[in-house]
Design goal:
alpha/beta, seven-stranded mixed beta sheet, 15% strand
Length: 357
């Protein structure tokens, strides 16, 4: 009988070592098949993950600091972190330092765009079209129920790393809706088709978001760069709430959808918006971030293994370096009515970036 090939080595390309107060969090893609351990459907080298270490792996739930384990177990966890089987959350904050609600069309959108902001201030992520089955991974394409569960588990891990609350609305992703079977990206002149094609869905989304943005606090809305129909629907629902006077424009800013903003023109998309009776066009505001916040964003993006390529995450982080040069930043598009509130947020972010390593 031919020998079974050795498992391919797991190599996570990160320069970040676990810090003493980091909280290791296991990723949900690990499966135990008898004596064998698999990650993303592939066997893991027993030298990296001996079968006897399953209990330790389950204990990596984000509640214990790395320093609390004995040296031999820390060595195993450090190996898992280097291989990408666990990620590291910083010590938890006592409470969010800003009242922020991020409307995320799908799991991962808010974190890809504003992970640095969430790492600094915390806040709440509201996933709108959170029932997804699409994946890049062949192992999961024929297992849609498993893929759907893992996509939400990825989101929960990412929010735990960022110290963000999560609300899941449960609407079905466009890739699984009959109306968009032939394609779900809209051109700049076709955004009205999103609402007109699915009017009942638009009303349900609007009603859900009205409940989520009630009670004050700043609201961050996707700019819908790239024209994905779910991003357009989320943005248009927020604009509808402004038109109905359910959501005050002074609370609202728009964020640049990632990775679409890497290859599409966010400035042009912002220029096409005209909000309120004054038909105001938003203007850009940079939100600087410290090295520590960038590290936390990188950790938070790693769990997204079913849809997001590692190369894409790296490009997003490099893009922040270009935006904030000589530092690092994410960008919002702010209405005249909300300039003061988001200017204050940007000032607080700049102060943190200047004082925290």
């Amino acid at each position: 009988m031919p020998e079974r090939p050795s498992p391919a080595p797991l190599v996570r390309r990160t320069t970040h070592a676990l810090l003493a107060d980091d909280r290791p969090i296991r990723l949900p893609h690990t499966e135990f098949d008898g004596a064998e351990v698999r990650f993303l459907g592939e066997p893991v080298d027993p030298a990296v993950f001996p079968s006897s270490a399953a209990e330790l792996w389950h204990a990596c739930d984000g509640t214990r600091p790395y320093r609390s384990w004995p040296p031999q177990e820390r060595e195993l966890i450090a190996g898992w972190h280097a291989a990408g089987l666990v990620v590291a959350a910083p010590p938890p904050r006592s409470q969010p330092s800003r009242a922020l609600t991020l409307l995320s069309p799908h799991p991962d959108d808010a974190q890809l765009a504003l992970g640095g902001l969430l790492a600094r201030f915390g806040g709440r992520v509201v996933d709108v079209f959170s029932h997804e089955t699409w994946t890049r991974r062949p192992h999961y394409r024929g297992r849609p129920s498993l893929a759907s569960r893992l996509l939400l588990e990825e989101e929960r891990v990412a929010c735990a790393v960022l110290g963000a609350e999560l609300t899941v609305l449960g609407h079905v992703d466009a890739a699984d809706r009959a109306a968009w079977r032939d394609g779900y990206f809209l051109g700049p002149q076709a955004v009205d088709a999103a609402r007109a094609t699915e009017p009942e869905l638009f009303e349900r989304v609007s009603a859900d978001l009205a409940a989520e943005v009630a009670g004050g606090g700043l609201v961050l809305v996707p700019l819908a760069v790239g024209g994905h129909v779910d991003h357009v629907l989320t943005r248009q629902a927020a604009l509808e709430l402004i038109a109905r006077k359910t959501l005050e424009p002074e609370r609202v800013a728009f964020y640049e959808d990632m990775p679409y903003s890497l290859f599409a023109d966010a400035t042009a998309e912002a220029g096409r918006l005209a909000v309120g009776p004054e038909q105001a066009v938003p203007v850009p505001v940079l939100l600087p971030a410290s090295e520590a916040a960038v590290r936390t964003k990188q950790e938070a993006l790693w769990p997204y293994r079913l849809q997001v390529l590692e190369a894409v995450s790296k490009r997003i982080v490099r893009h922040g370096g270009r935006l904030g040069a000589p530092g690092w930043a994410e960008r919002l598009w702010v209405l005249p009515e909300s300039a003061d509130a988001f200017g204050e947020l940007a000032s607080a972010a700049a102060e943190e970036a200047a004082t925290v390593g």
